[in-house]
Design a protein that fits this description.
By secondary structure, the protein is an alpha+beta fold. The chain has nine helices and seven strands.
Length: about 325
């Protein structure tokens, strides 16, 4: 799919046919483009759309580079699949003085909401540079929303794990561990995304030296870089909190397991003396006076009860129960 947008007094207007000869798009958004569409765009704008394999490479030279007057910048952005699973996908920004081209196989939320917002509100889109910065502003805002939502969920999870209410039904720690793992994966994706965006900001300024950014664009880039650093610090804090919750949950599981083992251990020790007595009188030797004694059976039962009670009393006195 190819979506094209043209400038209209600081706003973006969608184009019915962005590949038409008369079309003058300022932004082309390529979502899983067909090969012949890719070739047409490359021929018209003198750029080279990177392959999926090139976009997924982690070397900085493969993600941030200039070629033939165009700047190629690839970042990683979090998305959700149809099964609501978090996923980190590469998104490439190709910037020339005339146009911004974005390439991706999945559509991050910011790419879904930004066009509508830019169509209704003047976001300062004056050229390809300002369109890119406005789009990155939406991306950073979306990452901030993910961290805010994750922070609230982690705080809620923290109360569930650490605040034990007397008489409350035992927690299913399998679900707790699953939630902790899910939040950890989401925050990890945001961290990796922010790292790639910060590297992009560092590269973007010097890369435009041949056509310096406007004063507003420079100020916006500086603000975005500052926001990205702040979000990275917040993501690191959430990571530490998730690790603490994981350790606390594993500790609670260990405590519950120890309590269960303690019950079985006490039961085994309490019933060991009665079992020993029953074993002695079950040997059936010929010379055992109690076997022919009329009160031998109640005597053995009483001895078993007394031995069990004595074991329990000793455990209770020592504070082991």
């Amino acid at each position: 799919m190819i979506n094209g947008f043209a400038l209209n007094d600081g706003r973006l207007s969608p184009l019915a046919d962005p590949l038409a000869e008369e079309a003058r798009p300022i932004w082309l958004d390529l979502l899983n483009p067909l090969p012949h569409h890719t070739r047409a765009i490359e021929a018209r704008y003198g750029i080279k759309v990177p392959s999926r394999e090139r976009m997924e490479e982690i070397e900085e030279s493969s993600r941030l580079y200039g070629d033939g007057g165009a700047i190629y910048m690839t970042v990683s952005l979090p998305v959700r699949t149809e099964l609501d699973m978090p996923l980190l996908v590469p998104v490439t920004f190709i910037l020339t003085p005339e146009i911004l081209v974005t390439v991706h196989d999945y559509s991050p939320r910011a790419f879904q909401t930004f066009p509508t917002r830019a169509e209704r509100i003047d976001l300062g889109c004056r050229d390809s540079d300002s369109v890119l910065l406005a789009l990155l502003d939406a991306v950073v805002d979306r990452l901030a929303d993910i961290l805010e939502e994750g922070g609230r969920e982690i705080e809620k999870l923290s109360r569930e794990v650490l605040h034990v209410i007397p008489g409350e039904q035992a927690k299913d720690y399998r679900l707790v561990l699953r939630d902790i793992g899910h939040h950890g994966e989401v925050v990890s994706h945001v961290q990796r995304s922010l790292v790639s965006i910060e590297r992009m900001f560092v590269f973007f300024g010097p890369a435009t030296a041949t056509r310096p950014l406007s004063k507003d664009s420079r100020a916006r880039l500086k603000s975005l870089n500052r926001d990205a650093r702040f979000l990275t610090e917040h993501a690191n804090f959430l990571t530490q909190k998730i690790q603490f919750l994981l350790d606390a949950t594993l500790g609670m599981i260990g405590i519950e397991q120890n309590a269960t083992i303690k019950i079985f251990s006490v039961a085994a020790v309490v019933f060991l003396p009665p079992t020993l007595i029953a074993s002695i009188y079950g040997m059936n030797f010929e010379i055992m006076p109690e076997l022919s004694w009329a009160f031998g059976y109640p005597f053995a039962l009483g001895l078993m009860v007394m031995s069990a009670w004595l074991s329990y009393w000793i455990f209770k006195r020592q504070g082991w129960l």
